[in-house]
Records
---
Amino acid sequence: MLQFIAKRTATLVAAVAVSSFAVFLIPYVTPGDPVRKIIRSRVAGDAIEDSSVQALAESLGLNDPLAAQYFRWLGDFFSGDMGLSYVSRTPVAEQVLPSLAVTLSLVAMSLGLAAAVALPLGIISGLRPGSMPDKAITAVTQAFIAMPEYWVAPVLVLVFALKLSVLPTAGWNDLSSAVLPALTLALRPISFFTSAVRAGIIDAAAADHVPAARARGLSQAQSIIRHVIPNGLVPLSTLFAVWFAGLLGGSVIVEVIFAVPGMGRLLFDSVVNSDIPLAQGGVVVVVALAVGVTTLADSVHRFLNPTVGGSLA
Amino acid sequence: MRSFLRPRVLVAALATLTLAGCGFSGTQTQAVQGTAAADTSQRIVVDNFRAPVANWAIESDAAYILSLSGCLETLTRFDQAQGKVVPMLATEWKQTSPLDWDFTIRQDVSFQDGTPLTAESVVASLNHVLDAKVPARAFNRTMVSSVSAVDENTVRVSTPAENPLVPYRLASVNTGILAPAAYKDAEVDPFGHCTGPFTPVSEKAKQSLTLDRNENYWGGDVQLAGAEIRFITYGATRAAQVQTGEADISLSIPVASLATLKGAAGVTVLGADSPRTATLYMNNGRAPLDNIDVRKAIRDSLDLEALAASVYEGAALPATGPFAPSEPWAGEAQEQHKQDLEGARALLEKAGYTADRPLEIIAIVERAEFADVAAVIQENLKNIGIPLSIQAKEYASAEPDVLAGNYDMLLSQRNRLIDIADPIGFLTADYTCKGTYNLSHFCDPEYDRIIAEAATTVDTNERYKLYAEAGQILQDKAVNAWLVNEQATDAVRTNVLSYVQDPLSRYVLTAKTAKAAS
């Protein structure tokens, strides 16, 4: 177990270092002057005086060598200071943490909803593979994969906000305002979760210990509940973690359409505006959380199924 | 303390909102009037397209949000209907020497924190803007040398060279006046420190700003109890919110939502000429576009009516030149351009152009419609024998080459009045020989002479005549091809009263803005 934790901690440090450096380089390897991008994020318009560009670059230390800039940030970060946003000149942590809280709530709701829908559907499908219900569930949930969020979101707004007037179109105020973005984000996980649960149930039902359990006198329902379903759900823990990590920074389209002030928008805006400290802070937090969540999921997976990837001991 | 239980104001003519063509006919600013009684207990919701990113720094675009929400006020104000600068926190002003302008500060005005507006507080506020690291476009050290108090009621603004546009510069939202307590270290806190009809009381970061009525507003009774300004960057969401009634006013409605909103119950769509013209920039400094006949041929080959009708779905009008026809400096001879393929081919032949020198057009991806516009232009140019390739690029990636003159043509659009309500900054930066944003690489001594004269002409009408002359030179030399004049489009619920549309969204909520009971 200690070896496993040590490996994952090393992975976390490496991931933070690599991702923060990659984000740091983005403004310099993409076309355009990063200082002009920063200015344009504060004052719309195209014509910018060279003197303004020079003055801002000097005040932000952007004329220093790249290595010096990066290691200055890294040193501050490890001393607990994520720095100031280039654009707003406010502490990065003050922007990242509220956005992270919003995204965590949204992702938790989306994946909770996805799991609540996918579990019964996957179990029904997996217990009767090839049946009509299985075919119908598979067809519908697979269709969700082909529905992009930029199409689903307006359709949901049209139906639930404009036609039925039962939900708000956008915002992040109360539970009702979270329904449409959570539902939009949940559709694809529903598809993948259902498919994973179905496959897991089919595998578990075919395992040798299920007929053995029946032979010991368990009813079919008892054997399904005790042996098939628990084992069939094991693959879901890993899949859940992967989706959780992916949605932490990958919900930008939904956040823009529904005006949700989450991490996706924060990261997107910070990269577009060359706001390097904000982008670095956001990415580091997302990467750390993603590594943490997948580590937890792997631990759970290994605990439930010790034959996978060796022992935790 | 004033009571808000005052006789309710009747505002004129709501039911007759015959927004013929919804304003898409090259119009000036439109207003919503009403006969319904204002309910002073009502609050209003405005969906804005912009979110504050610079922590309310007044020199940034955050000032637009504070201004449109009725918090921030300036010494002067540009009245769109009258087309001139009018008093606001200054009651009068005069040029006391070639380099000095004196502004008389309005008496009996208090900031929302109760402190009085004085010449000293105005000076401190304006100097804060002048000292900003990223200076405001309209008001910075290159055009203002100092701001000082002459006496307790008079502020002097001095310039390094004679500048008749100082009153215009002080109408810029970036010169908004806040109480001294608003400035703490490097930060600005507008909460309770404005002079306007609405006081900001809370902010949800990246979501909204909530304001309450300023009971002590110097400009009279405030007709709304309060307001919420929402920051919704996605246009379709703004359109949906005004349609459902979640928002009362939605600013900057995208073209794709217009048809739906025009047919929606309880919604009025307002349109006005915006100071933005989609333009085909041509590199006057590089062959073959350094030949005026080639540029004219390209201009004459374009079918602007078809372009406006197809790509812009009628929500933009064919351009007649570098200015929108409704702008007071546009001049009188604004004729609509007509496609002339025969004439264009003759001009190309005269110029000696051959198809073995294909041209390239850069369509910036920040404006989604430019990909379609470029395709239409490609087809138009094909008709006169010019092969054209299209490059879609982010503006930031195209800019270095464009400024360096390494390009043929660029599709872009500029806000002519982004700094002040006068095109001098645009005409100087974009078209003078030493212009800092001369994308066309155009240089004409006569044009420069006219602009230099305009820059020191105090009389507004004379100055506008000079702008028209300068614009005519740009037209005659076919410096660029001006494609369509874009429209500013707002959507308003029909129970909103006394809303006057501002194409630049500087002034949205005023003391007179009201709502009838739902």
Note: The longest helix of chain A spans residues 92-127.
---
Amino acid sequence: MLIKRLRESGLFVIIQILCLSYSLFVLVPVLWSSISSFRSSIEFFTNPFGLPSTWKYQNFVYAWNQGNVGIYFRNSVFITAVCVTIIILLSAMASFALSRLKFRGRITVLFLFISGLFVPAALLLLPLFLMLQDLHVLGSYVGLIPVYVAYSFPFTVFVLVPFFNVIPQDLEEAAFLDGASYYQVFWKVMIPLAKPGLIVATIFNIFGIWNEFVLGYVLISKKSLKTLPLGLADILMKQHYTADYGKLFAAIFIALAPVAIFYVIFQRKLTGRLLEGAIKE
Amino acid sequence: MNLLGTIGFSAGMQSKQQQRRVLKKTRSPIRVVVFFLAPALIVYLAFVAYPVVKIFRLCLFRWRGITRGTQEFIGFGNFVKLIHDPVFWRAFVNNVVLFLFVVVVSVCVALFFAYIIARRIKGSMFYRATWLFPNMLGDVIVASIWLFIYHPTIGMLNYFLSLIGIDIGATPWLGQSSTALIAVTIPMIWKFAGLYIILFLAAIQEIPQSFLDAARIDGATRWQEFFHVILPLIRPTIAVAIVFLMWNSFSVIFTYVKLLTEGGPYRSTEVLPTYIYQVGFKYHEFGYGSAISVATFIFIFALAALVLRMLMERLMRGEKGF
């Protein structure tokens, strides 16, 4: 019995050590780069790992203004807000139709959306580029927004349809019997009841659009239109020549901070049941 | 329920038309279907379906000149070229190796950690929150951070190795062919393993305690419990998790390779999406680039067809989403 208990507590210690090591593996790079955003560019060579000798907050001012990070940030907020609003509205309408309405071709259309999960945008860069060029919207938001919206549908519909599926038929019928129109049923019955699904879909899409890189990289070339990931990549590729690390890490931190704040707020939702619900088979 | 009671009461005085609409389950009016479905469907067809069709046409042409140059129909000529292109095969193999390595390591690491914190050990909430965090960071941020971890002189990796006594000088992890491909995979694992842990953990905790008790009573060791009880039961979750990585793996892989190595050194980290990008936008061979895309499509769609059926069944069973 004693031996067993000793073995149990030994196991406990080992488990804790493993978990802590993995946590360090995750946290140290994030903390190091956050702290480094206060380091002067010279100190990156003299003292890359310790705390900065002087906390150089000017890195942020410099990155925000001269490094255009301010513009990138505003662009990202704008693009994310516009795209996610459109994505959620249109996907909710489509998922409602695909889940609750009865019409010929329903299964085909559902299949069409879901098969989009297997159409990687990264393989369609060439036709998309040519298509937007033909439409004269290459390099503008008029071209970028519909592309972002379109490539978010498969995942969003995939998440939302099961949530609409489980809304009891009785509620819908009851509403119809009370004389509600389809539009009223959608707004007053379906949307409130599918809210957990809509929240999951919104959170995922916010992260998705905020972080999107590949499509933007090909479709947007003007500096004034770049979003944070595009701008950050720009600074990153140029640092080979300038070695202005202070500015670069300040830019990294500015990109990282909103995600971290958002994560801390929604962490319970994300690690809790909602995420499980969204993806669980 | 209050709501239902009220409505049940009022059900007696409904009009005939309303009665038919509900009870006979007729088709929905076409204008309603169009109103709800058309906006999403039109955008989707225009920007996802149309480019797919277009790429199957593009791949049959040879292009001359910058983007809008003259096009010449050459049939399957691009595919003949592709079969004899060593860089394509290099990119293909690298792509497969990279993907498999990321998936296998992430799944194994995630299964391990999900299993050991499944019994609500001290601090498991903290661990979960910490481990999922990198998954929320954008690929560009993760790549930027890791570019500096791998930095030969000011990088944390070499510093850490020298601290534990392995002093191998200023190793350029991303700059030498022997280590570059593996070095590109680590940031992806760093990012994705956390999500897998959360998903697997949820699946493990869903297993009825009675199953595990039964195994215990039958004298199963922890090892047996894991491989013979838990693993078979959470297999569907693992499958879905892999699919979700597969779905955006090309974008992810493109981002990391582009930012960390640009496909180098000597194409040792060249992958399909970066090669397509190069052929299309650097060499302006849109036809050949499209042919590489199409070949990749056919390859993944063969795999996807299997999974797609499973996903469709899930949506059509009307199964509960959570």
Note: Chain A has one domain: 58-279.
